[in-house]
Write a structure and sequence with these properties.
Blueprint: H1 4-18, E1 23-28, H2 41-45, E2 50-56, E3 59-64, E4 68-73, E5 78-83, E6 109-115, E7 120-125, E8 131-136, H3 160-167, H4 174-179, H5 189-199, H6 220-236, E9 279-283, E10 286-290
Antiparallel strand pairs: 1-6, 2-3, 3-4, 4-8, 5-7, 6-7, 9-10
Helix pairs in contact: 1-6, 3-6, 5-6
Amino acid sequence: MPELPEVETVKRGLEPALLGRSFAKIELRRKDLRFPFPEDFTAAMTGARVQALERRAKYILVHCSNGKTLIWHLGMTGRFTVVKADGAAFEPGAFYHEAGAAAKDSPHDHVVYHLDDGTRVTYNDARRFGFMDWADTALRDEHKFLRDIGVEPLGNSFSADHLAEKFHGKKAPMKAALLDQHVVAGLGNIYVSEALFRSRISPKLPAEKLLKAKGVDARLDPLVRHIKDILNEAIAAGGSTLQDFRGASGEAGAFQQRFLVYDREGEACMSPGCKSVIARIVQSGRSTFYCPTCQK
């Protein structure tokens, strides 16, 4: 599933095509994705002009002139493609989650947004784990998909003090604690594994053990810093490509070239002087990669 950097890449890719444009027509080619579309989905959004795009956790929010906000979630295989009226690809592009551009009239093209300048923004989702909804912009934070999400990891509210509060009495292992979307929004398997390695924290350590009896453990400040650094580096690299992720005009993300632990099971630890190899364990049904020597 795309994580925060990949969703941010999608959002930034869509902005040049969508900002200032209005939805002349919204074409739904099926009645549902992961969930059914709201009955008033097309009626509510047709004619609305896009004023801003925002990423919240792993959601893309499209704020419109009619006081409503589109809520998009990509699921595992969702992608957007942008094609201008003359049939040419929109160069700043959108998000390709499979190799190359989508074929015309693909059976997995489920939603087409026709813009007022003739541009088409098509949502393709082979597995249909993504979904779309809308909310009143003023009440969007109360929407069922957004109301319980934690702080943004790139925002000022994400701090060592915040983690100390959330980790108090939390017996879940560190990996699971950071993946908890109520604690912090948008973190996923890849970037949590990498951040814990950079911070030299075991993914198996109970979150409450990271706190000292008096004050915040000295490892929380570096953990917060490493999380922010990794996310910003990944966004700058266009995300990570593991299997089929592609960015604007079909290019792959590049952050996977910087992985220190993720997907490196059995390979040598890259820490200077460490003779261990990267291990893999399963936590909450997901693979965790870490160095048993460096992360204690």
